[in-house]
Each structure stands twice: as structure tokens, then as C-alpha cells.
């Protein structure tokens, strides 16, 4: 290793060390950073100057008296410059979120569309159009998008960015990274895993939970001590294909009686007497480019539930029961601290949460003194694109040097 | 920290470092140890002398020419002195294994007995009698038992050593550590978890697997990169209570249609027309103190299977199917690299392995390119007491200082 290479490696490590502390502490003075990291004050000042110049850190304007020496101005992670994009292809919508480095959600765009009716190429072209126009809007408000992650409802080869199986889309071995041409590095990951990470980084602050992502498909992500559990091949968390009833209706996955056939969005709407193919609203929207009116699917179900429609109530009862059965198996196998219901189960929580808890308690209460609590996600269907953008933010905080040298 | 305390801490760390390398490498010279650890040769020689004196290490008699300097004699972990005891209370047997520090199984004793018919106090007294007589035998062959772990088929509070729930024994909040008076430190752990660790340390050498422990109850232990996954409260791996059919027969656990009701030993024997209460043979036996003849339960089932008895074959078919359903849910949730069938499923493997694999492939093959392989454990019902003794061995290797100072 030459001296220059060694110096670069040490600078990269120190940049990560300092930015990590700034991110973890919210706001902090240079003097405090020197004490925390053990680096010399002049070194910290130089690193902070570089991070400010690269737009990763800003001064807060708040001056703190130092424990020793002169008062100093606090710095914090900047929300003014660098940003990440989270994209989602789901069965019945496309979504794009832009999150700045301080983890504030800056732009959210969604497009209700039935992606089962289009070829993968068309879906990718639509997504690219939506993403690029959102990136343009980001530029208009002073943000520089430096990377993105795409969430898809299927098993994903993380190395190549290929969707292996997405039964609800009817996709098999669809490469996404090369066709999706974006002006920054992209990765692809499973929607339910990203939703769990979204809940970890943008949700209620829990560090041990099973996050259930209710969509047309049903997925889950297990977070253990703040880390995602992916399984040996990366395909853990397929809650939607846990067997609720072994002789039940056939599933797109090749199985029978899977949870999705009882509690997935199509099954739920169908049981409530609502045409299941109607695109739902997807994640929250605030742009004129997307229709402001809620889709006819889940929104219609919510209207009927509020009017105490018998079929709608019975459909939720049945879905909640099936979810309770699948989660009974999940709790027996993986023993999570708590269960967070997200996706469509977030707005439906008042009608399904009780049945889920009741089913779990009836089946688990004898064996376990504490049955995991069942909670509602604050993020609903936004969790996956937030987790996607959040992954990029995590990566920048962990290794900011690349953005400074660029 | 005084200088003496600091010296003791450093010596303890270096003893662990050196013994860890000896254990990992099988046999190695002092000179090689000095190179590997970076410690001075004289320090290594002193540490090895202490480990030899404490009976943890022996010279192999093999002299290797050093890369530099004089030839040296190799040392290895000693199987001649220090040993650990693994105990098991299961529903229909008690078992005791003694394993020496080199991980050789030295003594195995088992006692078929229906523990459902006795009070916890009587069960503990029986176990203590069996354990102490085995420890006496160990002394006779020159072994010194320094610690033990007790495996029980239920949820365990690891801190207090209390069995929380053992539905198949009908136990609830039964303290085991204080009533079980042994002349060395003891801990209590879940049988299925210990069986998985037994498979890890004494089995086929895999590091990522779900080990299924078939007994009267059915449990599982998930090993991820060589580490046991315990879940948030330590109660993960309750495969026996994964729901096979939500309206199925009621289970001791308070649930309904649990795997145990289809594939547990009682259910299996009952379906085959064999009285399920007959004690089975338990782990392998080689002592005159235990009846050499196989118990009438599983041994009778095996006899009938070998004679192609229709009921026996149908019972295995049904149990294998149910196991396949529960494992379909498990693979969807936790995505293990492979599945190892142990306990009673080991001898029954020829009659259930195929059905399990077939069920998994039919239900998972569409979603996954690779369905986890289903393999037979070499250890059968011995896995839990081996894992129990193995935990003590691991602990000694990781921190041998206590045995030297004693």
C-alpha cells in the first residue's frame, strides 16, 4: 500500500466515523466530535469542512459553550443537497419517493396501474418516466439524487438485480437493472424486506419486529436487533405463502391454501364483493401528475366498512383470521418481539387488528406468557419505497468518501 | 485495575487464544502457535504447560520440523481428563451423555420411562440418580466432569433454569436448577435448540440448517452461519405448533391442528395402530443398566414398516405430508439452506423423507429455483444430549482460565 493510498483509506474511515456520529447524535459541535472520536480537533474541523462542501453536513446556527475551550457551532446532517430515491413496482401501482440525507421525505409520487396487464418492458418504461420526472422536480428544489433502490414484489437476485419469481406479476427471471437506465447507481430488492427496513428507519422506532406488508401479495420482513433477517438464499419472509389450509385454493406460487389466497388484497376485495382488479391508490400522493382520488379497491372497501357493510366486515374477519393462523406459525418459528401490520393492513387495522390478536392469543397464549403485540404501521404502503431510499442513505452515512471525491 | 488483575485478564485471554487455536487446528506445534497468535514462543510454552497441567491439552507424540528453529512436538486438545455431561428429560426417556474435551462421546446412558406419569420431583430424582451413577463411571475411566447442560422439551427461562411450558409433560413453571443437585455448574436449555447444536458440532458439518427434532413433541432449531437463532424471547423453533390444518385436532399447547398432532410420536404410533404410551428406546444404549431391547413404540413401528404393514406405511405417509406442510411454511418464512430430520425421524427417514421432499417440492418449487434439501441426521435422538454436553465444551474452549485456577 503506498502512502497516498493509506492516507485515502484513513481519510475515508475518518469521514465515515465523523458523519456517523453526526447522524446518530442529531446535532453536535466539532469539539464534542473530537472528544467522541478521539481525533484531533483540527482533523475534525477539516473533515467537517469537506463534508459541508460536499453538501452532507450543515451548520445548525446553534452555538454551544464547549466544556473546554471556545464555544462552537453545532453541525447536523444536511437535508439541503444530497438525496436518495426509492422506487417501487407493485402489482397495482408504481411509486417513487425522494428522501433527503436527513431522512425527510421530500417528494412522493404514485401511479395506480395494473402491472399484470403490461409487459415487464412497459412497466419498466413507465417507472423510468415517473422516476426521471420526479428527479427533475427534486433538482428544482435543490436536491441531488445520488442513488436509488427499486422494490419489487418477488424474490430477487441481489447481485444481478434480477427478479427471480414475482408470481403476482407473472414475472420469472426478469432483469431490471440494465433496462432501468437512471443517471445514478441503482439496486433491486424485495418489497417486503424493504418495507420492514422502512418501518425500522421511518416507523415507530422498534428494533425487533416482524413487519407484514399487505398488498396484492403478502410479504413479511423480520428485523432482529435492528438487522434484516434475509435467510440463506435471501428469500426469507414469504409470509404470503405460509400454509393456512393445506387443501385450500391454489395459489400463483404453485402451492395451495397460502395466506395470500385469504388475506391478499384480491382475495379480500373479492370476498367483500368488490371487483379485485381495480387499481388501488397505492402510496400517498401529493402531485398533480397522479390522480388525487383514491382507487376503487381498498378505498371502496374502507367506505363499506365504515358503513358497516356485512360482506365487507365478514371479508376482514376472514382475512384477519387467516393472518392470525399464518402469524401463529410465524411466532412459533421465529418468536418476534412484536408484529407490525403494514401495507393495506394499516388502513384496515381497525377491522382486522382485533381478529389477528384474538387468533394469536387463542392459539399461543397457553404456551407463551407473552404473545407478541400486534401494532399498526404508521407508514402503510409507503414503507417499501421509504426503506428503499433509506438503504441509500444508510450507505452514504456508512461510506461518504465516494461523494466527496466525485 | 491493579497490575495483578490486569495480568490475570491478559493470561485468561491468551489461554483462550491458544486453546482456541489448538481446538480449531486439531494438532499443532508450540512454534506454529507462536506464529499464529503473535505471542512470544516462551509465552506460548508457558501457557501450553499450564494447559497440559490442567488436563486440557496433551502432547501427541508427533514431532514436526519447524519452519524456523528446532523441531517441536505437536499438542492437541486432551480427551483424557476434562469432560462435560449432557442430560435430557424427554417425555418417554431420560438420557445422559458424557463427552470428553476432544468431543469424543465416552458414555451414554438412557432410561425409558413415561415421565408423564411421574411428578417433576420424581423425574428430577430419577435423572439425578442416572446422572450421578454415570459421573461415577466417568471417574472410573479417568474423566473429571466439570459442567453440564440439561435438555428439556419445552420453553425455558435460560437465566433461572426454569421450564416455562412443557405441554407434553404437562409442566408449567417448573424450576430445575436448584432441585437438581450436581457437583458442578449446570444450565437448562430447550431440547430442540440443543439438538440443533448437537447436529452442528457432532453431525454432518453443515453450518446453515433447520434441524427437526422428532419426539413425542416436535421441535426445531435454526442454525444460521454456525449460530443458533433463538428469537426475541428465546422461544423460536416451535415447529411442532406450526399450523398444519387450522380446524384440526386440539393440541396440548392450546392450539388446533398443530404439526405435533399429525407427526409427533404419539400421533404417528396411534395412526399406525400401535399403543402410543409405550416408552421407546430413546437414545442409543450400551450399558447394562439400561434395557438393551428397543422400546415397543418406534421399534415396533419400524418392524411393521419393514414388513410393509399398510397402516404403518399410511401413518408415515400422513406424518411426512404434515411435516412437509409445516416445513413449507418454515422455508417460506426463514429460508434455511437445508433441513436435517432428526430424533425419531432419523430411523423413520426411509419412509418419510420422500414424502417430505415431495410435498416441499410441489409447494415451493414454482417460487424457488432451489428447494432446501431434506437430509437425515446421523445422531437421531442423541443430538440433544450431545448438544448439551457440547455447549459445556464450547464454553471451556472459549474460557479455560477458570479450570486452571480451580
From TrEMBL, chains A, B:
Residues 17-59 form the HTH marR-type domain. Residues 274-289 have a biased composition (Low complexity). This is ROK family protein. SUPFAM superfamilies: Actin-like ATPase domain, Winged helix' DNA-binding domain. Residues 274-297 are annotated as: Disordered. Coiled coil: none annotated. CDD domains: ASKHA_ATPase_ROK_BsXylR-like. The lineage of its organism: Bacteria, Bacillati, Actinomycetota, Actinomycetes, Streptosporangiales. It holds the Pfam family ROK. InterPro entries: ATPase_NBD, HTH_MarR-typ, ROK, WH-like_DNA-bd_sf, WH_DNA-bd_sf. Belongs to the ROK (NagC/XylR) family.
